[in-house]
Amino acid sequence: MAKGTFSYIKWFDELTKEDIPLVGGKGANLGEMTNHSIPVPPGFCIVSKAYKDFVTLSNINKVIQDILSKINFDDAGDLEEKTAKIRNLMIETDIPLQVERDILRAYAVLAEQINLNEPEVAVRSSATAEDLPDASFAGQQDTYLHIKGKDELLKHVKKCWASLWTSRATYYRHIKGFDHMSVLLSVVVQKMVNASKSGVMFTINPISNNSDEIMINASWGLGEAIVSGSVTPDEYIIDKKTLDIKEERISQKTVMVIREASGGGTTTVNVKDILGPGAISQPCLSEDEVKKIASMGKRIENVYGFPQDIEWAIDRDTGELYILQSRPVTTFKPQKSEEPIQFDTKTEPEVLVKGLAASPGIAVGKVKKIQSIDEIGKIQEGDILVTAMTNPDMVPAMKKAVAVVTDEGGRTCHAAIVSREFGIPCIVGTQNATEVLEDGMTVTVDATRGVVYKGDRLLQLQGEKPKTSTPTVGISEQKVKEIVEQWAPITGTKIYMNLGEPGLIDKYKELPFDGIGLMRTEFIFTDMVGIHPMYLVKQNKGDILISRMAEGIAAVAQAIYPRPVVVRFSDFRTNEFRGLEGGDEVEPIENNPMIGWRGVSRYISPEYEEGFRLECRAIRKVREEYGLTNAWVMLPFVRNLWELDKVKAIMASEGLEQGGSLKVWIMAEVPSVVMLAEEFAKKVDGISIGSNDLTQLTLGVDRDSGILNRMGYFDEQDPAVLKAIEILIDAAHKYGKTCSICGQAPSLYPGFAEFLVRKGIDSMSVNPDTVAYTKRLVASVEQRLLLERAFGKQ
Ligand code: PEP
Ligand code: MG
């Protein structure tokens, strides 16, 4: 049977890593790997539009939204009850015929491809916001293994869709600020590998952060045993260059997950009953297998250019290695506490339990033991959560805890991953923490060494440097520096990059830039929000703008942290604002939008102030909730001093007060700013020259006029514009402020960039394609300048 055309299906070989909106992170990765000849079991994705059409064509979206609006997220019972309602609704609703037909046809094609009648498949959900570098949704949506037959397939596809609405996934989206309705779900249907052994691999050492090492976890049977933490796996640390095994730790693997003997699904069984008692302590991988897996890890990391977290399996019958999934290693945050800490060394420490240090850091608190999910209410802010193994339902409790200690699990299990996400110390695989540790007991969890001590072993010593520093997790700064240094020389003038589309940051983030000098939020307004801010305000749905705008900015700020992202508030003109949904209702029509109601004049007028406040809240959210204080703000189209005072007051009332880590910049685009440059400089942290508008307004040349452009009137290198720039740089420096430029000119004209360096500009923000070139150009101009000054030539 030929594959044929499908509306709701994409085969792995039709997909690349860019297809996340279509098939989610998991699906896009499987596609990318298939196209790089990585041995991925064959299969297809039911695209996210199928889920969307399922909820819209059946009209259940309205019911979902209604239930959602009534959830009290602080009440776990209420959250569970309401999300269960949504899940049931989805299970009971029929799949639209056209979607069902495509799924069954694709299943038949797959069957023919692999030469099996009604093959067993794995049915996995792949959320469109899942697996992003900043949000590890560990164990979030469901995966169903060994599914056989059409009815079972359809049933499990619906179950996957419904899994988007578990209490934990819903809660996770809530705290992460994702908009519930815009997170869609694709379903991956893939030939089932009947694994004799399987596991997880990190292509960096996630504990020490060493990117020259690979870590492999392995256990008998299916990998679910490791991911769920029901077994403490064997662990190998491998030298990435030589593939030599540097460390190995063979565990007691008492249980394994295998295919259910009758019907579909899986079951957990005792290793001794299936493989004999010897297998429990026997290494499950040979040295050759370890090397083969590690070498595959290197290949996959090369495909993505970023450390990966990979699920692998070895087929029982053929001994072949298969890759089931790969995703970027979550960018972990450093420890919350900045308090200097030091161990109390006066008394002999009493070790209570030992385990694997899975999320580094040290914490002191009272033990709270959790046997089942009903008890999570016991956990108070500052407690130490001790349990056999965490599961995603415990996430709200984990968020409150200062540390997590488990009996089971390896460094890649749920507790480990989520703890790292939240930046709390975690020790896993202690075997006996729930026995030894008593409720209410004060303990010190040292998750840099994997030890729990009795009592409070820390002294808070004010003003002293920490003796036990918390290693920062994620790709090391050293590694990033190495890449940067390979690419470009050091420059005294900062080279920033202009970027508006958050989705592109992954592509460009390794370029040698010092920050984002202009993030045009208009891209977010168009692509991620699509609705006019004031229209949202009118409907009481301002939160949509806040969460999506925050999400977009955070994606960039997170990716390049700690380098700054200068976020420019919306600078649509009225004609552009009218293009957004609801714009025709709330946006006036102007004759000259280019010099009309734009920039700060909008923010301070009653007709838009509420919309501006939403923008402020989004940035506040990025800075405070995401903790990304590298997000700065920039005001466009500033015309006079009094409006600047007014807008700063509004920002301050929304928690964006200038000072500390929050830098407030203005754009110099209107000649009035040049004329009063010193006065403006006094009021802000930085001035960024918008040479596009500044040229337009200095020369009185419509930047969009084809006629004038063709005639050469629009010229940023006109002496009048150059004079204006010189005035701005000098004024900023006179008051100790920075002066940057973010218009097109330095990306276009090397001579212009040279002029800026000679005049002492602090930074220039250029397009991604010219970052590396500009960096080299600027370096050469700076060296020339030094020589000229040294030898007295001017
Ligand atoms: C400018 O005016 O130079 C600028 C960078 O802003 P925009 O092009 O978005 O108006
Ligand atoms: Mg401009």
Automatic annotation (TrEMBL):
Pfam family, one: PEP-utilizers
Ranges of residues in domain PEP-utilising enzyme C-terminal: 478-782
Ranges of residues in domain Pyruvate phosphate dikinase AMP/ATP-binding: 21-342
PROSITE patterns noted in UniProt: PEP_ENZYMES_2, PEP_ENZYMES_PHOS_SITE
Catalytic activity: pyruvate + ATP + H2O = phosphoenolpyruvate + AMP + phosphate + 2 H(+)
Pathway noted in the entry: Carbohydrate biosynthesis; gluconeogenesis
Statement: the UniProt record of this protein carries the keyword Transferase: yes
UniProt keywords, alphabetically: ATP-binding, Kinase, Magnesium, Metal-binding, Nucleotide-binding, Pyruvate, Transferase
DNA-binding is among the record's keywords: no
BP GO annotations: gluconeogenesis
NCBIfam families: PEP_synth (TIGR01418), PRK06464.1 (NF005057)
Function recorded in the entry: Catalyzes the phosphorylation of pyruvate to phosphoenolpyruvate.
UniProt-recorded name of the protein: Phosphoenolpyruvate synthase
Protein species of origin: Acetomicrobium hydrogeniformans ATCC BAA-1850
